[in-house]
Design a protein that fits this description.
With about 220 residues, the protein is an alpha/beta fold. About 40% of the residues lie in helices and about 20% in strands. The two termini are about 30 Å apart.
Length: about 220
């Protein structure tokens, strides 16, 4: 499951993709990372990392960034200074309502994840690193897919989960990140394809980061 791939695709932005940040998420994220083809990419430098199973510590807690895996992530960010930074996470589908409820903000100060459709969720990255390790120009996204190993027949039936549709929804946004040659291009395409999600992300960014901070 541990995986690394570097692609030199010429002049362009540096893009860092990381899966398997905590728990057994890497078992799900690796499937998406390995499906990425060269024709999906913009010009630029691409770095793909997927980590082995590790202790689960939430990335919204400072303890995560004090852990071995957290330190690896911070070192990669500081060394590569990516223009696009994307975390590929997964979640237990039975927690869908909790993750997308404003109760999350009331309890933790972190806005809920945004529904992209087909139980795919999206957000910025942890506020603990967004303002300190990246510039405002960096495109920072978290993508969440239901953890494949936790998709029991009972849960699939309860939520009416369509795996094929969810994969398509997830990969559409992932491919937009992959092919975007600049922040400006990414912003314009997001406004065209995901206007409702962008408006909500802008609202959440104001709550956490203040006025005039980008939602990704």
């Amino acid at each position: 499951m541990s995986y690394f791939r570097y692609i030199n695709n010429g002049e362009g932005p540096t893009k860092l993709f990381i899966g398997g940040l905590h728990g057994n998420e890497g078992a799900t994220s690796i499937r998406f990372i390995k499906r990425i083809n060269d024709e999906d990419l913009s010009p630029g430098q691409f770095y793909f990392y997927n980590f082995d199973k590790t202790q689960y510590i939430s990335t919204i807690k400072k303890e995560f960034y004090e852990s071995e895996i957290g330190q690896k992530v911070l070192n990669l960010i500081e060394y590569l200074k990516p223009d696009f930074y994307t975390e590929l996470h997964c979640y237990n589908l039975k927690n869908y309502d909790n993750l997308t409820s404003m109760e999350r903000y009331k309890k933790t100060g972190i806005p809920p994840l945004i529904k992209l459709g087909d139980y795919v969720l999206v957000s910025s990255v942890s506020p603990l690193i967004r303002m300190t390790y990246f510039s405002t120009e960096t495109v920072c996204k978290t993508l969440e897919f239901p953890c494949l190993e936790k998709l029991t027949p009972e849960i699939v039936e309860k939520y009416g989960f369509d795996k094929s549709k969810a994969i398509e929804t997830y990969e559409n946004l992932l491919k937009l990140i992959l092919k975007s040659p600049s922040r400006d291009y990414f912003e314009k395409e997001m406004m065209k394809d995901y206007i409702d999600q962008v408006k909500l992300a802008m609202e959440y960014a104001v709550k956490v980061f203040g006025e005039d901070f980008p939602p990704y």
